Structure of Small ribosomal subunit protein uS14:
Amino acid sequence: MAKTSAVEKNKRRRNTVANQSAKRAALKAIIMNQSLSIEERFKATLKLASLPRDGSKTRIRNRCEVSGRPRAYYRKLRMSRIALRELGNLGKVPGVVKSSW
């Protein structure tokens, strides 16, 4: 089980990304616009740099919904391999059957 603080920090980051995404997208559009003057683009770069770092989407860490584990994460199921195995053995994940041959 992951530390509760790490899981909560990631949740805060998700909220920050959701709140800041429109601002960041607008500033990035200004920065990438070649028709604007260099001064305007530089001001937009400074504004983007002044926004919180946790507002960037790359700061989000994929974590297991069940255990909070950050590694061996299956995106489709939103859980780690260990949690998938445990819940699969209990029959709580639809379509997952323990193999035997």
